[in-house]
Every structure is written in C-alpha cells, then in structure tokens.
Amino acid sequence: MRAYTTNPAAAVLSRLHSVPVRRQPAVPIAPAAATARRSILIVEDEAPIRELLRLHLSLAGFEIEEVADGATALARARAQTFDVILLDLMVPGLDGITLCRAIRAHSVNMTSAVLMLTARASESDTVLGLESGADDYLAKPFSVREMVARVGAILRRNERIGPAHDAMSVRQVRSRDVSLDGERREAVVRGSRVELTKQEFDLMFVLAARPGIVFSRTALLRKVWTDEAGVTERTVDTVVSRLRRKVEHDIVRPELILTAWGVGYKFTDSD
Question: What is the model's pTM?
C-alpha cells in the first residue's frame, strides 16, 4: 500500500489543464534521434502516470516499453538493452532501489541512463536513489516538460562520459596541474612525478578525463574495478583517500578530487 499524501497521477495531470497536450512540442533528445529512435523502459504501476509518460516520450521520439511491477522490469532489463529506464521507486514486487542495484550489477543495462521517480522527496530518499545507481531523481508531482528535459539531459551527460572503457581509451589527460599518460601509466602532479597504484591511477584517469562531471561510487566501481569481485562502494572511498594523500596539498581541503556530497566524486573543472 502506497503512503501518498496526494494522488500523484491526479497531481501530474492537473499540471496539464492549462496547457493543451497538442500544443506541447516534442523536446529534442539528441542529434541521433532523427535517424535512430531511442528506446525507453517505463517502470510504473500507476496506469494514468504510465499513459502520460508514454504519450510525451513517444512525441519526443522514443520507442516505449512499459511494465507495472519490479520483477517483470528486471526480466526485461536483463533481456533487452534500453537507452533509458524510467523507474518508479515504489513499484510492487521489487522496489525501485533493489531493482536499480540489480540492473547496475547484473544486466545488459549496466550503463544505461536511469531516471528515478518517486512521491517521496526527502534528502535521504534522493541520496539513496542516486547511490543505488540512478543518474537523476524526479519527485512527484512533476511537470512532463521537466521530465522529458531531464531524460534528454542525462542522455547527453552519459554520451559525454561515454561507455566504461572510453575514458581509458584516451591516451593522455592534461587538466589543471595534472598530466596523465595512459600508455606509460605515468602521473605528473604540479610538475612532480607521483607513483600511483593501478587502482589509484585508473580512478584519477577516469575523473580527470571528465573534469566537472560527477561520478557516483557505483559508476566508478563499474569503470575502475571492471573485473574484480567482492569490491564495495567503501573501496572507492578508501582509494580516493589514498589518492588525495599523494596529490593534494591538504586532504581536508582538496583542490583536485572533490566530493559531491551524497553522490560521489568529481575532478575540479576550475582553472
């Protein structure tokens, strides 16, 4: 039984009364949308909301598949790749947090964009959703225009970040006092060579190759510890701590590897 204080479907629909649906233009998602339709899996048990999402995402150029429970969603996510998964936090059968973690851990959609929807908008719920592997978080009631825009934004962000192997396929990274040579696996910080372990080098390379982009701990696990079992998000914190001791002037006030509180880490984008 859901503990909504308001009817989320009615609240979302009420946002549309003053703007006729036929006058809402489709929001461009990405340049490739004109030649190849992107696919999206909608995981939502409220039929009115599901229909609303299907209508507007179809107008935005998506091919839509929709399910109403977590178990069916996980089966579909393991069998078919989607560009985006729109995931309600409180679907029956398998809750959204558990489902998101399962998708990120063992499915063909490990790197697909995930936008989580929920009627609970507390900070702890937001943090929990992001740390489970979601790319973004949208609280009900929401504007459908904002929802479509959010989908477009996480797609563009994921395209800039690229697949897990893309960052390490770049041979060299030079960014604010740091030079990294991926072939020689050499790190130079503020003019001095720094000896880094494999994990330290790979972690810094991934972050420095995308300055200003926040990586969740889950995303860093997928990119840096691709073939290792038994590692946890705490491992990321441990390696970041070791790395800061080697590259920062002051580990209490880091200037290069910054913390995005409640989400993960990023490399500074300041000059």
Answer: 0.52
